[in-house]
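In this section we walk through a basic example: taking a raw amino acid sequence and producing a predicted 3D structure, encoded as discrete structure tokens. The instruction is simple. Fold the sequence below.
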Amino acid sequence: MIEKEVTVTIKEGLHAKPAGELVQNLSRFTSDVEFQLKNRSYNAKSILGLMGAGIREGQIITVRVDGPDEEEALEWLEKFI
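The resulting token sequence is shown next.
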């Protein structure tokens, strides 16, 4: 498992369109991906989970990735966010 803090730079945060794109792209990785924000964890492969998190531009989230392709998944995620 790898963990890293990432600052969200997506303008307007993870609203419907970027959250959908994120979930769609993360689905090609077999690793589990989780965001932690304000002591709560969210499944990054779940559109409902992401929308419920209300992640905004400028927030710092902790990303946890666990699985066989965790490094590739984290690298892609950092570029996207």
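Looking at the output, two observations stand out. Strands lie at 2-7, 32-37, 40-43, 60-66. The helical segments are 16-26, 47-53, 70-80. In the next section we compare this with other chains.
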